[in-house]
Design goal:
mainly alpha, two-stranded antiparallel sheet, 43 helices, 6 strands, 64% helix, elongated, disordered C terminus
Length: 1041
């Protein structure tokens, strides 16, 4: 179905721009609420025409959720919505050339003026004839003045005094003002008022002294200025000669029109004190000059600048309305025959009104006066005129109307233009009938009145050749009128201020009353034209009631028994409406209200509130947890404990999910998934709180000390100092060399300094002060959360399916679609955080409690002197203690973490053991034996870690030991050939570090010459005298010199 805007490029562009703006904001997260019954903007094109841009901009700036009906202009929205269902494409094509505008009553006096002396009821809008797509800039009073001027100029000398008085009364022109207008017409003599130059002359000649007061003059001048402007704009639009633009390119049509409007604004003097006759004269002269230039640039020159045809028709319509007596409803004035004769002989030839246009205007004026008086006899006369026109054989269709009799037209005017005017006026009559019938419950007082308007519509459609579209048009009109009537009743109910569920019951009653009224009063008459009228009324009520009911449903914040009862009532009403629609055969394609589905937003909101409460509970639970005492886990046998918070948080989560699934109504899967996902996020936060104090434990792993190379005398002295061997005096040497005593003192400082960093107070507090029992509680709690939420998924799906209506045995498939991955986030997070706890425990043991034993004492100076077995006993004891506190299914994970930590520590000792680790090839056998002991302990006769896992973990340290089994020459050869390193998968750094800890003179010599590695720690032992620089001035590098 087309819209009127589709015929107007500007309106079509406006709609396209609004659609783009709304779609772009929707992509950015703005929620757009469409009217009920519209699933997309394409189905609500009428809504785009009714949107107020200012309201839309304000809404986009202040809210992320916009109800599009709230940013519409109310009158435009109703009219656009009505026309979207009451007009066809051909209707709008007709309305494009002649539109009917409705101007409301600002006051009773204004209403009387608009009605041409007829009395309107409050709220009734007076139809106005406006030829052309753009409305005239003239107001009603100015148009009446111009019409009276034409009448005086053309008929003043022939009309009787009574007719002149009647015309003044009909046009709402007082006696003094009528006399003033007569004087004005006398100033131009017999000049044609059709010529715009005549009105320009009047603007020059007429001054405030010609009127009874300045305000009256100002009103006349404004109307005459508007007439001039309208005429010039129409001339430029229809006959501008673009071929002459090259002569004066700077003086375009736009420039000249702008200049003309500027001069007209200069004439617009609003106060008598500001009036200056000389200034006015200069302005009018400038205005005449601009208008003459515009006229000269149009086809035909100055002779064709006449009052536009559309404006002439409006003047004719105003004059023709003078035939009707505004005081005796439905009657003509006594001088009607005289008026008709003068109009036909004197006025119509000048205005170019043909017989056909005169006939069309008669139909319009009869209808217009009926609309105000509600005198059905006027409609009967209009129908009679249409019938006479059809039967006269003058034309079979309006769009082929003959030009008719016309006089006073210049040769430049097209006589066939009258056919367009006739078609437009008849289209206006039809469109006005459609407008009234689209709300006949309000605008018509009785079914008899509705019948008369329908008969006029039938007559107009028949003469216009559109009778075939009448059934579809009436069907849309019935639906539109019933919808409007229901909307008014709904608004009245809203004023009572009762509870929403009571309003729902009253709306249901009002809906049934309207249906009964339609069946008893209107349907018997409407069935003559459309048999399914009752069903169409039910269809309209279904749509209208749904549009009122569903917003209320959406506004529900909580469900209680009263609301559920109201919803049941609404569902019962819908059943009755659907029954009536099925009886008339109009139920096809009707979408049910889907009340239960419409409360989904409220269910989401309710779920959000529950989740907020759960989040608050979880925060309190977390803040009260100390991880010092625990409670038993029923899923674990023995004396294994979990944190007390774990049981509380799982129970609270279960209660929240349970409260949703036991509401007694089918819950949409999306709501359930939203709830469980929210619970998942909260439980993930709980899991994160468990491991929050355990972050940053990796920093306690010792850093790499500076590299040193083997020097026998230094190492022997250091070994003596380390074992407190008494120092023997040595003979003095030659001056300039270091004595053994000095060497002993300097080397001693190496081993008395803290080359292995001690744990800081903060590290001891964050790592060593957390007990293994505390860590076990944390790991067990995480394990309990993971297990509990894994079981929860099946429970949720089972309870959801039990609350759903029968669905042809497809419930399993449906639940599988939305339940996939339920609680997977918290389960994965729990498992990941268990690893974090166990990693913390392993580093606490290896790098904390056994820090000195491993990083300082293991294999110190000699592999044979400090074997790994005592350390393995400590590790095994701690591992056994923690396994008793942990759930059985995570003990193997703890063993793996400790094995990794111990293996990393061993590798550190082998490669970065500092100045106390010196190995030879003969030590490799003992090292391999120690490595086998470590692997055996973790294997634990098959009850610990698998052999494959142990081999994978210990592969790096075993490769180091294997590299240490190669002689010095082979290692040096590797360093001299980088290709061999790459082929064996070795790095230069690893081979150099093996050589740095090699008890071998050749290796030391190579490291000194190629890598400049010192024999003592930098910054501790200064080089001997002889002017050598401090070692602090150098940096150890692995790049050969």
């Amino acid at each position: 179905m087309s819209n009127p805007a589709d015929l107007d490029p500007l309106a079509a562009d406006r709609r396209t721009l609004l659609r783009y703006i709304l779609q772009e904001n929707a992509r950015r997260g703005v929620t757009l609420e469409l009217p009920v019954g519209c699933d997309s903007l394409d189905e609500a094109s009428w809504l785009l025409d009714a949107i107020d841009p200012d309201k839309l901009i304000d809404a986009l700036a202040t809210s992320s959720r916009i109800d599009l009906t709230s940013v519409c202009e109310v009158d435009n929205a109703r009219q656009a919505r009505r026309m979207s269902v009451t007009s066809t494409t051909s209707d709008y094509e007709m309305m494009a050339s002649l539109s009917l505008q409705s101007s409301g009553l600002a006051s009773p006096a204004r209403g009387a003026q608009d009605a041409g002396g007829l009395s309107l009821e409050p709220g009734v809008q007076m139809p106005r004839l406006a030829i052309s797509r753009t409305s005239l800039s003239l107001d009603d009073q100015s148009l009446a003045d111009i019409a009276f001027e034409f009448f005086l100029a053309l008929c003043g000398s022939k009309a009787s005094t009574d007719l002149l008085q009647s015309m003044r009364g009909q046009l709402e022109i007082g006696e003094r003002r009528g006399n003033d207008l007569g004087k004005i017409v006398g100033k131009v003599g017999r000049s044609s008022l059709l010529d715009v130059r005549t009105h320009l002359k009047l603007l020059e000649l007429v001054c405030p002294a010609d009127f009874q007061n300045f305000r009256t003059y100002m009103a006349w001048r404004s109307g005459t200025s508007a007439l001039v402007q309208e005429s010039m704009v129409q001339a430029v639009t229809s006959s501008w000669d673009g071929s002459r633009d090259a002569e004066r390119p700077e003086r375009t049509a736009h420039y000249l029109l702008t200049k003309m409007k500027g001069e007209l604004r200069r004439l617009d003097c609003r106060e008598a004190d500001d009036y200056d006759g000389m200034d006015k004269k200069e302005t009018v002269e400038a205005l005449v000059g601009v208008c003459d230039e515009i006229a000269s640039r149009c086809h035909g020159g100055r002779d064709v600048i006449r009052i536009p045809r559309d404006l002439r028709v409006s003047v004719a319509e105003v004059l023709l309305r003078g035939s009707f007596d505004s005081f005796d409803v439905g009657s003509l004035i006594d001088e009607a025959d005289e008026l008709d004769g003068l109009l036909a002989s004197k006025v119509w030839p000048v205005l170019g009104i043909t017989d056909d246009v005169h006939m069309a205007l008669q139909i319009w004026t009869h209808y217009r006066n009926f609309y105000v008086s509600k005198e059905i006899s006027l409609l009967e006369r209009a129908i009679e005129i249409v019938s006479r026109h059809q039967g006269s054989g003058a034309t079979s269709k309006i769009n082929t109307a003959r030009p008719g009799r016309v006089a006073g037209l210049s040769t430049s005017e097209d006589p066939g233009e009258s056919a367009r005017l006739v078609e437009g006026i008849m289209a206006g009559v039809r469109a006005e009938c459609v407008r009234v019938l689209s709300d006949y419950h309000l605008l018509c007082k009785s079914p008899r009145e509705v019948s008369a308007i329908i008969r006029l519509l039938v007559a107009v459609d028949t003469v216009s050749g559109k009778g075939d579209a009448l059934p579809d048009t009436l069907a849309d009109l019935i639906r539109a009128s019933v919808s409007e009537s229901f909307s008014r009743k709904a608004e009245d109910l809203r004023k009572h201020g009762v509870s929403d569920h009571i309003i729902v019951a009253l709306l249901s009653t009002a809906c049934l009353e309207l249906l009964q009224s339609e069946c008893e009063e209107y349907s018997p008459m409407l069935r003559h034209y459309i048999p399914a009228s009752t069903g169409l009324a039910a269809l309209a009520l279904h749509e209208a009631c749904g549009s009122r009911l569903l917003p209320w449903v959406i506004s529900i914040r909580a469900l209680d028994r009263h609301i559920i009862d109201a919803l049941a009532t609404a569902i019962s009403l819908e059943d009755q409406l659907l029954l009536e629609m099925r009886a008339s055969g109009v139920d096809e394609g009707v979408a049910p209200w889907g009340v239960l589905g419409r409360i989904t937003p409220q269910l989401y909101e309710w779920s959000k509130g529950q989740l907020d409460t759960l989040d608050q509970w979880s925060q309190r639970i977390i803040s009260s947890e100390t991880w010092n005492t625990g409670c038993g886990d029923p899923s674990i046998s023995g004396d294994v404990k979990c944190g007390s918070s774990m049981g509380e948080i799982l129970k609270a989560s279960n209660d929240v999910v349970e409260s949703l699934l036991t509401m007694g109504i089918p819950i949409p899967p999306g709501v359930v998934r939203s709830m469980v996902d929210g619970v998942d996020v909260i439980l993930q936060s709980y899991c994160e709180s468990i491991v929050a104090p355990l972050q940053g434990v990796d920093e306690i792993f010792p850093p790499q000390p500076p590299l040193t190379r083997y020097k026998k005398d230094v190492v022997d002295t250091a070994h003596e100092i380390d074992h407190s061997v008494p120092k023997q005096p040595t003979p003095e040497k030659s001056p300039g060399s270091n004595s053994l005593k000095n060497i002993t003192a300097k080397v001693g400082s190496v081993f008395t300094s803290n080359w292995l960093p001690a744990l800081t107070a903060d590290q001891r507090d964050r790592v060593l002060n957390i007990s293994y029992a505390n860590l076990a509680l944390r790991a067990n709690s995480l394990r309990g959360v993971a297990r509990g939420m894994s079981l929860m998924q099946g429970i949720v799906v089972e309870k959801w399916e039990s609350g759903q209506p029968p669905s042809d045995g497809q419930s399993d498939q449906t639940s599988a679609d939305w339940a996939t991955g339920m609680f997977s986030g918290v389960v994965e997070r729990s498992i990941s955080n268990i690893e974090t706890v166990l990693h913390f425990a392993s580093l606490k043991l290896i790098c904390g409690h056994l820090r000195e034993e491993i990083f300082s004492n293991l294999w110190r100076f000699s592999v044979a002197a400090q074997r790994i077995n005592p350390i393995l006993l400590e590790v095994d004891s701690c591992l056994a203690q923690m396994c008793q506190m942990l759930a059985p299914d995570i003990t193997s994970q703890l063993a793996q973490h400790i094995c990794r930590a111990l293996n990393a520590a061993v590798a550190h000792v082998l490669l970065d053991g500092g100045p106390v680790r010196w190995f030879s090839i003969s030590d490799v056998a003992d090292l391999k034996e120690d490595m086998e002991s470590m692997a055996y302990m973790f294997y634990a006769d098959g009850e610990g870690i698998s052999q494959e896992e142990i081999e994978s973990i210990m592969r790096s340290s075993l490769e180091i030991v294997q590299l240490m089994d190669e002689d010095t020459g082979a290692l040096v050869a590797l360093l001299r050939n980088s290709g061999n390193l790459a082929r064996r998968g070795l790095t230069e750094d690893r081979v150099v570090r093996v050589l740095c800890h090699r008890r071998d003179h050749a290796a030391s010599k190579f490291l000194k010459s190629q890598y400049k590695i010192k024999k003592t720690l930098p910054n501790i032992v200064a080089a001997a005298g002889r002017g050598s620089k401090s070692s602090s001035a150098r940096r150890t590098s692995l790049s050969p010199r």
